[in-house]
Amino acid sequence: MMRKVFSPDFFCSSQKILASCFATRPQSGRGHGLGDKMRPKRTILCVDDNEQALSIRKIMLETRGYKVMTSANGAEALEIFKGGGIDLVLTDFMMPGLDGGTLVRRIKEISPETPAVLFSGKIKVYENDLKADVFLPKGMYAPMELLERIRILLVKKRGPKRGSTAAGAQLAAVS
Question: Which of 10, 49, 103, 138 fits 6 for a cystine, CB–CB 3.0-4.6 Å?
Answer without folding.
Answer: 10
